[in-house]
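ERR on first pass: missing label on line 2. Operator R.T. fixed the label and resubmitted. Corrected input:
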Amino acid sequence: MTVHARHGSTRHGDASDGASMEAVGGRLSRVDGPAKITGAARYAVEQQLEGLAYAALVESTIASGKVRAIDTTRAEAAPGVLKVLTPDTIISLRTASDWFGTPPPDKPYCPLARDITFSGQHVAAVIAETFEQAVAAAALVEVGYDETPAIVDLSDGKAGDGIPIDAMTKEWGDAAAAFAAAPVRICAAYNTPREYQAPMEPHGLIARWEGDHLTVWEPSQWLDGMARTYAEWFEVPFENVRLISPYIGGGFGSKALALSHGAVAASAAKMLGRPVRLVMTRPQTFTGYGGRAATRQTVTIGAGHDGVIQSIVHRGVNETSIDGMWVEPLGSVTSIMYATPNFSSKQNVVRVNSVVPGAMRAPGENPSAFGIESAIDELAYEVGIDPLEIRLRNYAEQDPHAKKAWSTRQLREAFATGAERFGWARRSPEPRSMRDGNHLIGWGVAAGTYPVRRAYGEAVVRILADGSVEVESSSIDMGQGTYTILAQTAAETVGVSAEDVVVKLGDSRFPRAGVTGGSRLAGVMTGAVHKAATSALDQLVGLAISDPRSPFNTLQANTLTVANGRITAPRGDGPDVSIAELLRRVGRDQIEATGDTMPANSSAEDRYRNYTTIAMSLPHTEGDYSRHSWCAHFVEVRVDEDFGTVRVSRVVSALDSGRLYNPKLAESQWKGGIIMGIGQALLEEGILDRRHGRIVNNNLADYLVPTNADIPDIETISVGIPDLHSSVLGGKGVGELAIVGIAPAIANAVFHATGKRVRDLPITLEKLI
Amino acid sequence: MRDFSYLRATSPDAARQAAALPGAMLLAGGTTLIDLAKCGVAEPDALVDITHLKGLDAIEVTERGATIGALARMGHVADHADIKSQFPAVSEALWQAASAQIRNMATIGGNLMQRTRCPYFRDPSNFSACNKRQPGSGCSAIGGVTRGHAVLGTSQACIAMYPGDLATALVAFDATVHLGDRRVPVDEFFLLPGTTPDKEHAIEPGEMITAIEIPSSIAARRSTYLKVRDRQSYEFAAASAAVGLELEADGRTIRTLRVALGGVATKPWRAHAVEAALKGKALEPEAVRAASLLAVEGAVDHGANHYKIELAPRVVARAILKLGEAA
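pass 2 clean. output:
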């Protein structure tokens, strides 16, 4: 449980849609900020528990084969060691359902592997009295292997063409024939490497059993979903598992699921009868769970000499693991960004000896955009049309795939506003035509999009005796601003200052929430809090009107006004009392209301499914509309002609996320996505030793993410309008949108600067030298 | 857990003696040692802490040169006014190294002793073969991921790149390392891997770096350190050059040129051939570029690090021309 009251906050900034700073739409600073910057915020594994023991993982050093034997003699004899867990000695768990809630096969689950399918797989764990003892003893565990040849990556000769994923096939018209008949044809292959979320806070947890009740302190993007998995693993009722996740030091998709290291720690805690802490080392965060899958795409476009697209044929492949399935939907942007009468997209997945890939900021849309937004840039040069103009010529007036109207699509406005602010009209069209000393200067544009993922949420809002308001939800804040916008929502709805709202998140005992992923949480939870707060307000006003002890009782009013924590008659002709005063007079110590956005008559099972799986998420094309966020990025790069080094010197992005609940926080998320996109474009790549099937740059000195020095001033401009088809309050997704399209915008700018088209990320200096 | 003893040395002599014992290591800023201990490469039995020893952190700059105590912090040296004016390449090499936090902790002596970033060297649990760690065990890097490995000074036993910036500037300006009373030119202090890559420095048990000394010169005063890297900060060099220039009175003929390379060799790499080729020549772009190619004479790549052979001469040429423009 975490509490954020606001005291002495700095007041500045404006409200973008005319609201006060503290209301929805205001630029309130993050209410969890002071706790984080003063160190007062206590993260999951920082809990101090009596009798805590420490776990350290032992990982496979081969990519493929079998564990022949594990010799734990030396480790067990090491000082402080309590237990060494191996596949033979760890307790047996049951296989859990997946995140769709698909009933699992009835078979045991062992989080320590005998069959090795990737390098870095957990094979054993040491539990000791101290962290240092556990780490030292883990190095003494001797694992013998029978090694077999590994399929190291997509380019491995043994990898093959992979498995067709029919659900990814999207086709209309006759794409092949139209391509063959098109007067202008381009065809190119675009590759993205393995990329990693690299959150500042590594994964880890503390697990504690009390009888058959399990408490897990763990950074989590989805308390209810992870609690479900733990409950199924250990065959205890869902209600017996409590997940606590007060703060999260970055997730980017990687902290949404219970993972095998969690099963190891919770098993150890059960076996020892002591709470156990397990924190991954930084290298383990590269193999303990999946980053973004490596992808390959081929994009062919047939067009007229006027640049109008007649056909798009798209083929994609992504890596998955030997025994897991991850589909990175590579045709997601390809199929909706541009109008085309003929289209074909198909995708395969290829099994390789890697950890199963996972969600990473804008899974699917991110690499998909790198393909199509690079390809249309290539088409622009081929036909000699400005890269911005060609995008407008092929503007999709409706969803070309779903054949439905857009709920809102402010992409034309994004192009216009971004171009204006960037000064696009001054661009010299020829590659290598802009220069400053040794620097070739390039200007590039690309668009991005992300679907509006919708689900249902639940919240409790209480109006307390002192007139303050309390909000509870098992949703989480991983830095995106949930604490803040929910305080704003409750404050505006009830009619109090945001300073008088306390938001409690990150405890699965609170009213439930689905996954914080796919940029859905803000839309879901502002809706739920708005509903609960409206209900609490109705109760408050009802009491004030009808309770005989209320000073408003004699007024005969139909309604009352609540603002700034005070209750007044609508025409100001009656009493003026504080909420606290009213509650005192009517003898109530609080008003409580639960609100959820579930359909009426939802069963308990529906609710459980909604909050613990993604099975009930609403399709973005449900009903009459197709719902997406949109953006246009304008990027300037400076490429040193001799050295091949690329530095981004300017970014202007215009974005349509619908209504912004808090523009300051939305801008911060957009900028975070843009920065992450700069890293993806120029720096990030898991580098494989092909002999060992192992990522060797598994640390933050060698896996490069951008530093402050790599990031220029970034200008973000909101061009969104409220979209009530997308959410209760009119917002669309924010968190993932802005990374989509940054990498192709940079690659396009690099082409403009140098005349070299780089189709393999990242764009490192040796590709340009 | 792995226990080790910790000793706060009371004098330089006591420190040297304590550190001479088998398994003992000196501890200064700790930025390299703690890192290597975490990844299982350094497993000292005893640490001899010298950080509080008096008189080893002085920075003195006279007409003859600079003497920098072994315990001076990288950050202090980088910001020292006389170092900046008399040895700009030294200051620039330091402030482009590591991060501000590391520069505030790391000492000059420790900086010289920093070890390679070779990922195979740094991961003993996954890669048992490393001649630098375990003589005779082989080299995991050859045939593996080599993008950051050396193209100059390599041997069949080791291709690990020397990652430091400061020593590249020091070798360009003929600095010497003080090991108590013994003086060793920096160029001789760093050893080529040859068949003994485990032996990286000309320092014997019982010796300790006490200072470095950089002689003054006109070329050192007119010097620069150019570092090219994948990202703009907190990153090792893809290729770097420390260059110093002294022109004849005509303002265009090269009297003295000093050139050293970083990020491309197994040790800080003095490029005498470039210096000799341009001595007495006019400072012209074409001539400079042509001569700079000599910087990578004899270079051998291992695939992914081939770009360094292309890049290094361009970095050298840019640095020389930049100094020339600053006339």
